[in-house]
Specification:
With 571 residues, the chain is mainly β. Strands 3, 4, 5, 6, 7, 8, 14, 19, 20, 21 and 22 form an eleven-stranded mixed beta sheet that branches. Strands 23, 24, 25, 26, 27, 28, 31, 32, 33 and 37 form a ten-stranded antiparallel beta sheet that branches. The N terminus is likely disordered.
């Protein structure tokens, strides 16, 4: 575990003087639902916390552990971001993950709860919330009829968020194993859910040019790659005959308009057929349309600069404050001046005059060295300047961050082998190239905002391999403000560690101890105060215990964590 930023703190140990008796009522779990999933900690304690006694005693539950139950916990939390400076919306995403066990099988349920905050963004915040709520309700309804061998999920990535637009790419995974990709776009000012015509000034001209560019790009795919992608007929014919959905299957990023394209026509079901073949009650059948994920699913990007004359200027890339994703080998044009807000540089053309001069950003990767020992040369090009560094890794994701104070940053991460991740932050304001941060064992996860982003970090503590925290960029220095709080990733929240010795803890504000043999799931770590937050799954209670960091080692009361827990770390 790395902790270069984690200060050693000797926390004053609270003497265990108050002893409580924790009485847990038996809960018989049946069916595929746990009726206490949404019970708050307050309600749990009010119901189960008994009188104070001289020793801790867990009353044996008479409940039988059946094969039919649910694990459900929202643990991909985000910190309060009210202190983040902004003049564009702030995006927060909280991931819920649970697993249904039914008849010896299981169904994974996963969805993102999305919220938008920021001054004067109430309309788009409400619109995004309503759209997201409908998706979540649909998943929860379908869950009742789902089988147990596949995944039911709605995973959302934001590819652009600024003063003009919030653009999502959604991956909808139905319980029968099919995946549907959707582009969901909102106007920031009005909150309107956008269709393609809303961002254009000349729809016919745009469609003609966009199809021309897309067909050219698709035809550049080598013949050897066409069969795996599902190409069996002419791509120009497929594109022109409407296989690609020019209305709903698109989103915006830093570079242009991205379309999802399938080389086979979608298969459509009206309503869902449950795996167990039971009829859906008539009142619950919403005749939902679901597109299958057939072979040939690829993307085509139409650069803003090639279709700017057909588009409204506000949608042609970030022009003021915001964050957007872009890919390797795509030249992004943007105004990098720290006077960006006053200059209002854009792609807009008027009376045949070319657009105001924009800066160009390009990241490329070149392979060097022999095949058995390949080294990648990563080139960062800003206008006529270039900086290069060599690495064994490949770039995963890259983002452009344009801040309110005029600063512009390039954020990207790389991966080579298991846990061998690195995240880089470059200051490219005014066309410069300055590396401000290089974070090892960390990679970017959602969401990414103009002045804040979330990183997943490899840290083997208390049974967790990965935890995530939100970083902010200091406006005065351009350096990162490191988080004190890290949260367990949603998919890994059920990693259980077992006590091998008595552990002093605080449960519901009361000091007590937990005996050996107690299972715990650590859900969050506060390095600032030295507090670990946990969930005890057998009795459905939450609590906390305290730790220090000494010589790069996690300790509890001076002893290493291995003295308290039976932990088995995987590969």
């Amino acid at each position: 575990m790395k902790n270069s930023r984690q200060n050693d703190k000797n926390l004053t140990r609270l003497l265990v003087q108050i002893i409580m008796l924790l009485v847990i009522s038996a809960v018989l779990l049946t069916g595929c639902k746990n009726t206490t999933d949404n019970e708050t900690l307050s309600e749990t304690v009010d119901a189960n916390l008994g009188q104070i006694n001289e020793s801790v005693e867990f009353i044996d539950s008479e409940a039988t552990a059946t094969d039919n139950f649910i694990e459900d916990k929202n643990i991909s939390m985000q910190p309060d971001q009210t202190d983040i400076p902004h003049s564009s919306p702030i995006l927060t995403i909280e991931t819920t993950f649970r697993r249904n066990f039914c008849d010896g099988g299981f169904l994974n349920i996963k969805y993102d709860k999305i919220s938008i905050s920021g001054d004067e963004y109430e309309a788009v915040a409400q619109a995004v919330s309503e759209w997201n709520k409908q998706d979540i309700e649909q998943i929860e309804k379908l869950e009742d009829y789902a089988g147990y061998t596949h995944e039911l999920s709605s995973v959302v990535d934001c590819n652009r968020i600024d003063n003009s637009v919030i653009s999502f790419k959604q991956e909808w995974h139905d319980q029968d194993g099919f995946i549907d990709y959707r582009g969901i776009n909102f106007d920031v000012a009005s909150g309107k859910k956008l269709i393609l015509a809303d961002i254009l000034v000349d729809e016919d001209g745009f469609n003609e040019k966009a199809i021309e560019i897309a067909v050219e790009k698709l035809q550049e795919i080598p013949d050897a790659d066409k069969l795996p992608l599902g190409y069996e007929i002419d791509v120009a014919h497929e594109f022109n005959t409407g296989i690609i959905d020019l209305e709903n299957q698109w989103y915006l990023d830093a570079y242009g308009i991205v379309y999802y394209y399938r080389s086979f026509e979608d298969t459509i079901w009206h309503g869902y057929i449950p795996n167990h073949h039971e009829d859906i009650p008539e009142e619950d059948d919403e005749r939902t349309v679901v597109n299958s994920d057939l072979p040939g699913n690829i993307t085509v990007t139409i650069p803003y600069e090639d279709v700017a004359e057909f588009m409204k200027p506000a949608y042609c890339g970030i022009q003021d404050v915001g964050a957007a994703k872009f890919s390797v080998n795509e030249t992004v044009q943007v105004n990098l001046s720290n006077k960006r807000a006053s200059e209002k540089t854009s792609y807009e053309k008027s009376s045949g005059i070319e657009p105001t001069a924009l800066d160009t950003i390009l990241i490329t990767i070149e392979e060097t060295g022999p095949e058995e020992d390949t080294i990648n040369k990563i080139n960062i090009k800003i206008n006529n300047r270039q900086e290069t560094f060599e690495t064994e890794a490949w770039i995963l994701d890259a983002y452009l961050l344009c801040q309110e104070n005029g600063s512009t940053y390039l954020l990207f991460d790389t991966a080579y082998a298991d846990h061998d991740y690195t995240t880089y932050l470059y200051d490219i304001t005014n066309g410069g190239i300055t590396k401000n941060e290089e974070l090892e064992y960390a990679f970017i996860i959602k969401p990414v905002n103009a002045n804040s982003f979330t990183l997943d970090e490899y840290m083997t503590v208390f049974g967790n391999h990965f935890c995530h925290g939100t970083y902010m960029i200091d406006e005065s220095t351009g350096k990162l403000l490191y988080p004190e709080m890290y949260y367990t990733d949603a998919e890994y929240k059920d990693i259980t560690i077992t006590l091998v010795r008595e552990l002093p803890v605080v449960i519901y504000g009361k000091e007590t101890t937990l005996p050996p043999g107690t299972p715990l799931q650590v859900t969050a770590l506060d390095y600032g105060s030295g507090t670990a937050y946990f969930y005890e799954p057998d009795y459905n209670v939450d609590g906390e215990f305290y730790f220090t960091i000494e010589d790069w080692t996690i300790r509890i009361d001076g002893l290493e964590e291995s003295s308290y827990f039976d932990i088995e770390y995987g590969g």
